[in-house]
């Protein structure tokens, strides 16, 4: 049984869908784009490209500094998506934009702290954790502790990195043991 008969109706449906998107696409609100992004992320497997597109389109509709709550939600969702895609620099940029426009918020500060720790910026992570502590004391205190540990370990990590790259193996193990 040949299925060639299905191609013309599928082509017509695709063309109709494209025309509808082009003519009605401008009428979507930022909330609609946010809902579309969340729906794309809930599919199995998650549609990260579709979600990224929806979040970008939603942010295009709401200019920076407009104080529209949907912009804050879009920025947080895009930051979480960037973090899932292992793009901490972009995620941290969206977190900073949300904090600058809407002020301190627990979810954004927690994400920014975690991203800063991922980037080995322990001092910046500590600043975010200290801002988080009054808003969510339990999470703030645990992140402050993590940041202090990371700050204490940073000299040891740099000695370890230097020992692995610049010193011979026999001297490197001794240097690491002395540093600890």
So what's the overall shape? elongated
Which stretches of 5+ consecutive residues score pLDDT under 50? none
Q: Tell me the major beta sheet.
A: none
The proportion of residues forming helix, as a percent range, comes to over 70%
The tally of strands reads 0
Secondary structure category = mainly alpha
Radius of gyration: 24 Å
What is the element string, with H for helices and E for strands? HHHHHHHHH
Q: Mean pLDDT across all residues, rounded?
A: 84
Total of helices: 9
N/C terminus separation: 74 Å
Strand content: under 5%
Describe this structure in words.
This protein is mainly alpha-helical and 180 residues long. It has 9 helices and no strands. The chain has helices at 7-24, 30-42, 48-61, 69-84, 88-102, 106-118, 122-135, 137-166, 169-179. Helix 4 (69-84) runs antiparallel to helix 5 (88-102), helix 5 (88-102) packs antiparallel against helix 6 and helix 6 packs parallel to helix 8. The protein is elongated, with a radius of gyration of 24 Å. The N and C termini lie far apart (74 Å).
What is this structure, in a nutshell?
By secondary structure, the chain is mainly alpha-helical.
Secondary structure elements and pairings:
Elements: H1 7-24, H2 30-42, H3 48-61, H4 69-84, H5 88-102, H6 106-118, H7 122-135, H8 137-166, H9 169-179
Helix pairs in contact: 2-3, 2-4, 3-4, 4-5, 4-6, 5-6, 6-7, 6-8, 7-8, 8-9
Notable characteristics:
elongated; mainly alpha; 180 residues; single chain
């Amino acid at each position: 049984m040949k299925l060639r008969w299905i191609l013309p109706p599928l082509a017509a449906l695709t063309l109709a869908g494209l025309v509808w998107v082009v003519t009605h696409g401008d009428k979507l609100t930022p909330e609609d784009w946010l809902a579309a992004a969340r729906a794309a992320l809930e599919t199995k497997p998650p549609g990260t490209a579709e979600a990224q597109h929806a979040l970008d389109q939603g942010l295009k509709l709401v200019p920076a500094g407009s104080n529209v709550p949907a912009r804050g939600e879009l920025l947080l969702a895009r930051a979480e998506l960037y973090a899932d895609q292992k793009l901490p620099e972009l995620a941290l940029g969206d977190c900073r934009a949300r904090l600058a426009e809407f002020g301190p918020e627990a979810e954004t500060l927690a994400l920014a702290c975690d991203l800063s720790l991922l980037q080995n910026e322990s001092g910046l992570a500590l600043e975010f954790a200290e801002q988080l502590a009054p808003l969510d004391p339990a999470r703030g205190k645990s992140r402050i502790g993590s940041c202090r540990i990371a700050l204490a370990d940073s000299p040891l990590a740099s000695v370890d990195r230097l020992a692995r790259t610049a010193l011979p193996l026999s001297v490197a193990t001794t240097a690491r043991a002395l540093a600890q």
